[in-house]
C-alpha cells in the first residue's frame, strides 16, 4: 500500500524529544475506486517504540483523507506541545529515493569487476536456479 503523503513532527518535552507521524496511504484491496484512502499516525518519545492508530476506521476519499491529515497536523502544531514540522515526504519523493537506491545498488560493483569475479566460477552457477553445489570445498594450500 503506497504512502501518498507523510509528515513527521517533533516537539521537546520534559523527558526529552517526542515525535508524531501522520501518513495517508492508498489501499488497492478496496473495490471502491474513490474510497480507498486511510490516515494513520504514530507517536512516541524519540527512541521508544511508537504507538500506532488510525483516524479513518473506514476508507475515505483522497480529499477527505487530506482534510483529516491536515487537521491532525494543525492540532499538533498549534496545540500545547507546539510540534514543529521536520519533513514532509510524498510518494514522488519516495519513488525518487527508491530509484536512487536501485542505481546505487547496481553500481556497488562495476561491470569489469563483476566480469572478473564471474570468470572464476562456472557460468551455470549464475544462470541455473536449480544449481546445487555438492562438491567439497578444498583448501588453497
Describe the overall structure.
It is a single chain. By secondary structure, the chain is an alpha+beta fold. It has one domain (about 5-105). Helix content is about 30%, strand content about 30%. It is built from 4 helices and 5 strands, in the order ββββαβααα. The chain has helices at about 60-75, 90-105, 110-120, 125, and strands at about 5-15, 15-25, 35-45, 50-55, 85-90. The chain has a 5-stranded antiparallel sheet. A hairpin with a 5-residue loop joins strand 3 and strand 4 (about 50-55). The longest helix is centred in the middle third of the chain and has 16 residues, at about 60-75.
List the topology elements.
Layout: E1 3-13, E2 16-26, E3 37-45, E4 51-54, H1 62-77, E5 84-90, H2 91-106, H3 111-118, H4 124-127
Antiparallel strand pairs: 1-2, 1-5, 2-3, 3-4
Task: Using brief descriptors, characterize the structure shown.
141 residues; alpha+beta; 5-stranded antiparallel beta sheet; 31% helix; elongated
Largest sheet, described in full? 5 strands, antiparallel
Number of helices: 4
The number of strands is 5
Instruction: Name the helicity range.
Output: 25-40%
Number of domains: 1
| Overall pLDDT confidence | 79
With strands numbered from the N-terminus, the spatial order across the biggest sheet is 4-3-2-1-5
Strand content: 25-35%
Helix/strand-derived category reads alpha+beta
Amino acid at each position: 500500500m503506497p504512502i501518498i503523503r507523510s509528515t513527521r513532527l517533533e516537539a521537546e518535552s520534559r523527558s526529552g524529544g517526542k515525535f508524531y507521524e501522520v501518513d495517508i496511504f492508498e489501499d488497492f484491496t478496496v473495490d471502491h475506486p474513490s474510497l480507498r484512502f486511510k490516515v494513520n499516525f504514530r507517536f512516541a518519545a524519540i527512541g521508544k517504540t511508537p504507538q500506532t492508530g488510525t483516524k479513518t476506521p473506514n476508507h475515505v476519499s483522497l480529499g477527505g483523507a487530506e482534510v483529516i491529515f491536515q487537521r491532525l497536523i494543525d492540532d499538533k502544531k498549534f496545540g500545547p506541545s507546539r510540534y514543529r514540522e521536520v519533513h514532509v515526504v510524498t510518494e514522488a519523493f519516495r519513488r525518487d529515493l527508491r530509484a536512487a537506491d536501485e542505481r546505487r545498488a547496481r553500481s556497488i560493483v562495476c561491470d569489469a569487476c563483476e566480469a572478473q569475479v564471474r570468470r572464476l566460477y562456472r557460468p551455470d552457477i549464475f544462470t541455473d536456479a536449480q544449481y546445487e553445489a555438492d562438491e567439497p570445498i578444498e583448501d588453497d594450500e
